[in-house]
Every structure is written in C-alpha cells, then in structure tokens.
Design brief:
alpha+beta; 19% helix; single chain; 35 strands
C-alpha cells in the first residue's frame, strides 16, 4: 500500500479538536506524547555512549501509523572505538553521519500494539517537502550501510536480550543473497530519551538490497521482478488458490486462506505499470503453487523449476533454528527476477526467500508452544488449525520429498560447520551483550522502561537481570541445537529391540484403558490422583493402543506392558530395592529404560545382574518429573495427558513426558535381571526396557562398481537435487522403487 503523507499542522488541529471525545480510545491506543512510556524518559540523559545517537525532531507533532509526517533527523556516529556525546552543544565537532529531513511513521503489528517502545519507518528526503507534496526521496548511507532511502528503526521491547533479530541476521548472512544489515543506536525524539533501537535496512527493491527492476523494464518481460509477503489481510493481497493443510498428512482447511501481500509492486503501482502486470504476478504465484500441488511435484519438471531450493532450505533452517512462531505464515518474504533479466545477467528467475521479524522467536513467547525446543514450526497447522494465519501447504510437500530432506541435512551440516557453530553463536551473543552494556546503554534503556524482571507480552521467561536474559537465550539455543542436530546431522543410529519383563515384575497399573479410570488403574503417577490414559480413551495425549513407542530423542524402540494389568514398576519408598527379572536372558552393550517420575525428580541406583553371578557397576540416574512445561529436547515422549482417577476428568494442557535412560553393560555377559533402589522421596515409574542390537551409519561408502541395494534404482541425484545418469564421485542421493532413499558416498 502506498503511504499517504499528512499535512502536519492540519492533522494536529484535527486531533486536538477531537481530544475530548476520543480520550478513552487514546488511553489504550495513540498517546499525545508519542508514546513516552512514562515521565521516566524525560530524566534519562546520555552523557556518552558507544552507540550512534539518532536525534529526531517532529516539533511536537503526532506521529502516525498509516501516514508519514515530516521530521528532521541527525545521526551522530564518531566511529568504532569512539564515544558519541548526547550534548551536541558541548561537543560540536562530532561526526554527523546524516542530517536532513525524513518522512516518518510508526510501523509493525504486534511490536507496535503490545509495546511501550514503538518501531518506526522513515524515508530520507532531499528537502523539507514530503513526497506527496512533490518532494523527492534521497538515498543516503547510514552508519556504514549501503545507500538507500527506505529504513526502519526496530524497537526491541519484549525481546529483553535486544538481540534476537540482529543475531538471526548475522548468523544467516553467509548463506543468503540478501540479509538486512542492522546497527544499534540510541534514540532521542524531541529532546526525550527513547532507548536502544536497531537501525536496519528494509527488504526493498534498492540496488544494495533486493535490486528489483520495475516489471516490464527488461524487454517487456512480465515474469518479474516481484516481491510479495505471506502475511495478514491488512494490506492488499492475492489469495492462494490452495488452502493450508491440517498437518503433514492432514485434511484441507477449506475455510483458511494464504495471503500474498503485494510489496513490490504495490497495488497502487499496477495502474502505472504495463497492462497485465498484476495478472502476471498472480500467475507467477499460481505456477509455483500448481507445481507443488501436482502429483509429480518432485520430478524433474516439478517444483524445482519455480523455486530456488537452497533459498527455501535456508529459510526453513533459520526459521526452525529460532522456532519463530511467525515463521512461514507471517512476515515471510518471497521475491524473484524476470526470466528475461535472468537470461541476460545469468541470474536465477525462481522464487527466493527473505528473513524478517524474529523478535518473539528463540523461546520468547508464552503461547503456541513458543518456549519449546523440540517441536517443528513448519507443523504449526497441526497444533493450531484454528488460527487465522497458517503455514502454506507447499512446506509440507517439500518435506515429503526425500531428496529435499537429504539436501536440507547436508545444508545444516554446512551451517553447523560455519556461522552456526556453537562457539560462533556464543561469541556473537557475548559480543552484542558487551556492546549494549559496556557504556551504559542497557542501563539507560532500563531506566526509561523498567522491563527487566517484569513480564512483557509475550514473554515466557522473565529474568531478574539482563545477564539472566542473555543466559536464558544461550541455554534455549543450546537445547534447540541438540534437537536439530539429532534430526539433521549424520549420526550413529542404534538398532534397538524391546526387552520384556517377566510376568509378576510389574507392580502397579498407572495407564487407564477404559472408563472409569478408578477401576482400570491401581495407582497414580504422582501423589495426586492422576494417571496416564490409552489413546483408546482419547487420541490426544493418549499412549498408543499398540503399546509400541519409539523415543523421539534416542530413537529407541520400547513395548509397554498390557494396559489391562500391572504395567509399571512403581517405586515410592526411599531406600527400598526391587529386582526385576527379564523374560529371556540377553546380552547387550547398552540397556535403555523408559521411565518417569512424580512428586519431583527421582534418584535411583541400578545394578545389572549377570547369569554368571556377577553384577555390573552401579549406575545412578535422575528421572525427571513427568510435568514438563519447557521441554529440553531430550525427552523420549512429550505431549502426554493425564486422567483424574476419581472424576475421569482429563487434562487440557498435555505437557507430560516419559524419559530415556541408558545403563552400560558388559556385552560379553548375559543379563538376567536388574536391581533398582529409590534414593529419595519422589515416585519413580519404570515402564519398559530396550537393548541395543547393533550400530550403523546412514551414509554408505562404496566404490563405483559395488551394488547398493537389490531393489531397482528410480533416480540418482546430486546433493543439489540434479538428476544424474550414474553414480558420481562424492555424495549421491539414490531413490529406490520401494520408496526408500539412501545417501551413498562414492570413493
């Protein structure tokens, strides 16, 4: 949508004349003082700072959301390693990075509506005349960034680390054609301190950014250049022909629509562009979606003709790494160049992705599982199908393509070997934290807004200090990386086999298979009245009817005991030991135990007993409490519910878990039983055992002449997804006629 520029004096008179009747409205929306959060702002002063200082003068006029007002801006930036001083009269010889007029407005959705510190958008101008009055925009370099006239001042508020957007941009930069550059600064507006802001490039058409031409500018080609954004319906948009899906294998949500907002060109531009531009843009979207919707979508002439696959993988990895709630369905930019331009310049005319808006990612949301580290954001629809904005169907289609999956795993390895390496992530976080604290910027921001230690929408975690907020971010990322590495990095997989316990060893029944629960169970999981239930009673939160479980963390297979009898070894007396006999003697190097705890963490000692009369060294395990509201990614099973044994009322917040625990064994000896001792006053429940049979890796190393599998090969692909006639040296991806895919390394 084109921004209309307001006559500031007229706008001010209109607002003042309506003040009395709109007082209640503006108490919760627009304030007369341009959102000064309180009088605290007025008493915060900058003596010196290591951050650039942005001065904006609006002359007391009210800043608008949908119209731009004229303002004067001055940026003081004495350069790296030098201080900047707020008293420009006392320090008249400071380096002025920019001084001139800007067209200013508020920006943002949730960042605007739920924050005392508002984000801004501004365009730099040649003179003191707004564009709608005949003025011209002016491209300028700000704080060392590429010259342009379109900028944003992001206002970190709910993100108390102040770094989630910047961290995302910096980590992803090596893998993208364009990622916005950003610089921290402190803002003074009409003489009042407004805190730490992030001056950032916007993903727009400028040469240093997306570098888009006007449609039809190159040989009259209307196949591009285009920029759209999947978002809400608050801007003119083109509705997708295809509805989102209720999960990977779910039904079509026919009452939901995916919206492509027009960003460049905007809707108002179409009248000035060659005839048919809007229809051509819509057609380019249709072609991409049609290819995904086709039954042969992953063949040579399928979706790869229309999207830059690597770019989509990069977006997915960055979004999943951050577990960005807004990812895929909001603020998701797509852009492309025209076919004629691509042919002329040797570039790519397929759709590419953009990164934007990560302020409530990285565990910074208390809704839609925003705090979790062991779920996938692409599967948002299966968890929240009633939301108004859902993930487009083609992300599910991509993940149905084994070649795409293989490429994504290879790309993640590149990420982890590069900028997403543990040490680099920690270094980036520490560097930003030092930048914001070393010269008092964070202290001044806290004086103005007093948000540290206070819940701000939509915080899940509230640290008592800034250092605690930074530590939470580090720990959350650590757990997230563990989860993603487990799923995406090549690793030794373990072939496991359930181990059955001899009849009579199970002591209690904590799984209800019928109602009432009181008659189909004998005990609760904890000291309350709550037990697990079977999916036969309720699918959501229920344990599987077939009693087979593969743990999500260790990928170990277990078989639970029948639900209609005792199905758990329940230990609730501190210091008491029990010996569990196994149905058949067996040998293994590693025994796994599936367990949970009630009343807090259970501490147990375990000793394996061998057929020759000897025993293993004692292993001490800590079994976590079954209630887990912030999963760490190491849980075996999450999302279980509970049932009240007295009332049959079932939980609505299914956050109960089971856990893997491993015990080393002597593979040269035969195990016949295990002795377990409870060492504290919690309640331990042991549900099943499994043994490791063998180990294998998921990459097969062969020579060019060796046979891979006995079934027929239907396709050989490079790591970039290009179909090949034969195996090539290096890594190959092979698809077989039985539907399986294998990664093969040719020596």
């Amino acid at each position: 949508m084109k921004i209309k520029y307001a006559n500031t004096n007229m706008k001010k008179r209109l607002l003042i004349s309506c003040a009395a009747c709109l007082a209640c409205l503006f108490a919760t929306a627009q304030q007369w003082d341009n959102y000064k959060s309180s009088l605290r702002n007025r008493y915060v002063k900058i003596s010196k700072t290591n951050l650039p200082i942005v001065f904006i003068d609006v002359g007391g006029n009210i800043i608008q959301r949908n119209t731009r007002i004229l303002a004067r801006m001055k940026v003081i930036d004495n350069g790296a390693g030098r201080y900047n001083y707020g008293d420009t009269a006392a320090y008249p010889n400071q380096t002025v990075d920019y001084e001139g007029y800007v067209a200013l407005k508020y920006r943002g959705n949730s960042s605007f509506n739920n924050s005392d510190k508002k984000p801004y958008s501004f365009k730099t101008l040649k003179t003191n005349v707004l564009p709608d009055n005949g003025g011209k925009k002016k491209k300028v370099k700000l704080m060392g960034m590429t010259a342009d006239n379109d900028w944003a001042l992001l206002a970190p508020f709910s993100d108390k680390s102040m770094m989630r957007d910047v961290l995302t941009f910096e980590l992803a930069r090596p893998f993208y054609d364009f990622v916005p550059h950003a610089r921290y600064c402190e803002l003074i507006l009409d003489g009042t301190y407004y805190g730490i802001f992030i001056l950032t490039e916007r993903p727009t058409k400028g040469k240093g950014r997306l570098n888009l031409n006007d449609p039809g500018a190159v040989d009259g080609d209307l196949t591009g250049d285009y920029h759209v954004e999947i978002d809400r319906n608050d801007d003119p948009y083109y509705p997708s022909k295809y509805h989102p899906l209720n999960g990977k294998n779910g039904s079509v949500l026919a009452d939901k629509t995916i919206k492509y907002q027009y960003k460049d060109p905007e809707e108002e531009d179409f009248a000035e562009l060659p005839a048919g531009t809007q229809a051509a843009l819509n057609s380019e979207i249709d072609k991409m979606e049609d290819a995904f919707h086709a039954s042969n979508y992953n063949e040579a002439d399928g979706y790869r003709k229309y999207i830059d696959v690597t770019s989509f993988i990069d977006y997915m990895l960055a979004t999943e790494f951050a577990f960005n709630i807004d990812g895929y369905r909001l603020s998701t930019g797509l852009y492309k160049y025209s076919s004629a331009r691509a042919n002329k310049e040797g570039s790519d005319a397929r759709w590419k992705t953009l990164l934007w808006d990560f302020n409530i990612a990285y565990g910074n949301a208390d809704y839609y599982n925003g705090e979790t580290t062991n779920l996938w954001q692409y599967d948002f629809n299966s968890r929240e199908p009633s939301d108004g904005e859902l993930v487009p169907f083609y992300w599910y289609r991509l993940l149905d393509d084994p070649v795409y999956i293989a490429e994504m795993k290879i790309r993640w390895k590149e990420y982890r070997d590069g900028s997403y390496a543990d040490e680099n992530i920690v270094s980036k976080i520490d560097s930003i934290a030092s930048l914001l604290t070393s010269c008092g910027a964070m202290e001044r921001n806290q004086q103005a807004y007093q948000i540290i230690g206070k819940k701000v929408w939509p915080n899940y975690y509230n640290g008592s200090t800034y250092a605690a907020e930074v530590e939470y971010l580090k720990e959350w990322i650590k757990r997230r990386l563990q989860f993603m590495d487990k799923a995406l990095l090549p690793h030794e997989q373990r072939a496991s086999e359930p181990v059955m316990v001899k009849a009579g060893s199970y002591t209690d029944d904590i799984i209800a298979e019928t109602l009432p629960a009181q008659t189909s169970t004998t005990a609760p999981v904890d000291r309350d009245v709550r037990s697990f239930y079977s999916a036969k009673i309720k699918a959501e939160g229920g344990l599987p009817v077939d009693r087979m479980i593969t743990s999500s963390y260790e990928e170990i297979k277990y078989r639970l005991a029948p639900y209609d009898g005792n199905n758990v070894i329940r230990l609730q007396e501190q210091g008491k030991s029990t010996t569990i006999e196994f149905e058949k003697p067996f040998s293994t190097s590693l025994l796994y135990m599936l367990a949970t705890s009630g009343g807090g963490t259970s501490i147990v000692n375990i000793t394996l007993n061998y057929a020759d009369g000897t025993s293993s060294p004692m292993t001490t395990l800590e079994i976590r409490d079954w209630s887990v509201r912030n999963p760490q990614g190491t849980e075996a099973v999450i999302g279980l519910g509970n049932i009240n044994r007295d009332s049959d009322v079932m939980s609505t917040d299914n956050h109960y878990c089971l856990f893997d625990h491993s015990i080393q064994a002597d593979k040269n000896k035969t195990i016949i039983s295990a002795t377990i001792t409870l060492n504290n006053d919690a309640i331990a429940s042991i549900l099943a055992f499994s043994k490791i049979a063998e180990a294998f890796t998921d990459i097969v190393h062969v020579t060019e002449k060796e046979t891979i599998k006995s079934c027929a090969i239907t396709g050989i692909f490079s790591v970039s997804g290009i179909k090949q006639q034969s195996l090539q040296k290096g890594l190959n991806i092979i698809r077989y006629n039985d539907g399986t895919v294998q990664k093969v390394m040719v020596k």
